[in-house]
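Homework help thread (please don't just give me the answer)

Our assignment gives two proteins as sequence + structure token strings and asks us to describe the second one. The first is just a warm-up. Here they are:
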Amino acid sequence: MKNQLKTRIFLFFFSLVMFTNCKKSDELSPANIADKITGNYTMTLLAVDGQSLNLPYNQGGEQLNGTIVISKVSATSILFTYTLNSVISGIKNQKSDSGNFDIKQNGSVIELYEANSTTKVGAFSGTILTIDSGGTKINATKN
């Protein structure tokens, strides 16, 4: 009887120690950081040199809208591709560009940096992506 009690007490404390030392499942590993930010976005604001437009813009036959696609390159690197669609004076135009960014977790925010640099150019929090670099600011919402 004493041996059974000792065994149960040992098993109780052993299981208590094992479960309290487990890593929390809500902690993000570097691989999950890139997975969290990848996806499709709709631009909601475009500002260049202090002049800004809420997007989509549609006034007097002029239209402007934009999308962003973020793809995972590695655990801490993404490929950022944006497309701007415009109709000005009846002429349709589409411009696309892309670049790589490094990403880092800072609390609940994922920060974007120029590739291989310490220059911060944006952040992702919740569903909102903000890019602010070289006089251009872009806000976008994850779809």
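The one we have to describe:
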Amino acid sequence: MMKADMTMKKPFDGLLVIALEQAVAAPYLSSRLADGGARVIKIEREEGDFARRYDSVVNGESAYFVWLNRGKESLKLNIKDSGDKQLLERLIEKADIFIQNLAPGAAGRAGFDSLALRQKHPRLITCDISGYGEEGSYVQRKAYDLLIQAETGLSAVTGRPEGPGRVGVSVCDIAAGMHGLTGVLQALYEREKTGVGQGIKVSLFDGMADWMTVPLLHQEYGGKAPDRVGMNHPSIAPYGAYSVGNKAEAAQVVLSIQNEREWQSFCQGVLTMPGLLDDPRFLTNELRVMDRVALDQIVELVFSGLNKHELEIRMEKASIAFGWLNSVSDLSVHPQLRRVSVKGELGEIRQVASPIQIQNNEGNISCDSWGGVPAVGEHDEQIRQEFGVVSG
């Protein structure tokens, strides 16, 4: 049995990260560095990161903010003030990584252009996160998650046939933060070899355009993007949600058939209809997709005569991949959900544990140990004393 180890050293211990950040994408990146042991100093305006006021559902704090800013230190600065600007310069001088996602050009106009910073501090790694990148006619456009979902065509392939839909989480912001993290890790590895930092540039648009590669290839090489098919997969069948039992039970199972071996097992062991294997409508995956309506009617008919327990037994015996269509309240009590407690301004906050578990060669797993969610400017005095009190 694996044991949790509170004493394991974290991989980013000793790294200093300065994050001139707001909203979601950059805080996602810096939060993952903080989870890994880096010291992250978050630079905020007097009023704080505007994500602090998205909502107040978590003991009076914003859900987005408490998720993405645990374990950071908060420093209030007005970078237009000469003293505060000098303090930020001192912080960057000592930093390993500088992250910013201000409006296009704002960091440069304030004197914190990433290239100039790296020329002055060759070991520094910088990461600039933007909406549409730094070239082209969209550079100056404001960019938020739903706008990028729309611009990249993600909304056009999401939802039901009746109309486009929004992915229910801020996937474009998160993708940009993840790509930024990947770039920073690459730069850290390069610096280990050369001693020189690099500049990482990622955008919300580029990140989601990459994730849209499969629909784009269908459009450009097949002449048509995948249709919106709700809880079905556009190019695999059967792969989607099906009702189970009678209406009173109201359960839906999501199943996936990935190859012909699984299709054979599904027909024989789950549907108990081996004759379907010779049905000319369903001989290949492409044919099954073309005749999805007829196939789904057969599956629904069989499933209507089974309850959840009976179907689970058949699925597991036939080695078919499946899951239940859960609500968020179901997730909150899911047996696989790992939790960790974090200190908030107004009380303890239960958060999802890190998706990354690190195991040492003795078989022990590192235990999540995150700092709390900072109040605006909570660490002002401490940081000013450490790096030198500067006033304008």
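TA reply:
I won't write it for you, but here's a hint about the kind of observation we're looking for: The mean pLDDT is 91.
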